[in-house]
Amino acid sequence: MSIVHYLGFYINLDRSSQRKEEIETQLNQLQLLSQYSRFPAADGNVLNLKNYSIRSSQIGCFTSHYLLLEQNLNQKHHLHIIEDDVILSRFTNPILQRLINSNVTDNFDIIFTDTCLPFDLFEIREYKILFDSSVVKEASGRFIAIKEYELIDLKGRYLASMSSYLVHKNAIAKLYNILQQEMKNGLRMPIDLFIRDKIRNGSIRAACVFPF
Fold first, then answer.
1. What's the rounded Cα separation, in Å, for the pair 24 and 145?
2. In whole angstroms, what is the distance from residue 206 CA to residue 189 CA?
């Protein structure tokens, strides 16, 4: 089976040199540094948007993801976009490669590698049961490896988190246009909450890898 490569980007403010060093250290330890490029984050309202009701830092975050998609509108590969405070796993790259090569990614616009969980004990219990069935543990209970993983459809489930997500190559322009329209209409909420609304109404098809 041939490997289909993805392009990785980490979003980082020019003034956040320590975060740059930390994320590059992680990437280097996982032998992924050459596969990821730094994308300079927008520092506040760099596009001079006139119509908005969110904080400057939230505008910058929204704009950063928007500009990264704009830069890759003609890209022929999937994009793995991460923020510079993400904690990566040694399983991240192998699982992303397996997802891409299995073509299961074709069913979604975005695949998150993690997501926030609700403050709901019953739903958290469901995730815990699923987690225990998906991993291998020692007798002591120490985690050893992932036995299997699956994709959880996030329609009706996604709460927040844009720290790590894979964008399907055929959905780059679609996501860009959705963000662009919101910027024209006026930014009303942080990007993760905006994406949540689009997932809920079916405009964006999204899933999450589990275990995270």
1. 24
2. 19
Is the separation of the CB atoms in 185 and 51 below 8 Å? yes
Work out the burial of residue 38: count CB atoms within 10 Å of its CB; fewer than 13 is exposed, 13-18 middle, 19 or more buried: middle
Asked whether 211 and 90 are in contact (CB, 8 A), the reply is no
The phi-psi region of residue 109 (left if phi > 0; otherwise alpha if psi is between -120 and 50; otherwise beta) is alpha
**pLDDT, tens digit, 9 for 90 and up, residues 166-194:** 999 999 999 999 999 999 999 999 999 99
What is the value of pTM for the model shown? Answer: 0.88
Parallel, antiparallel or unpaired: strands 206-210 and 110-112: parallel
Element (H or E) spanning 36, and its range?
strand 36-40
Joined tokens for residue 97 = 């490669």
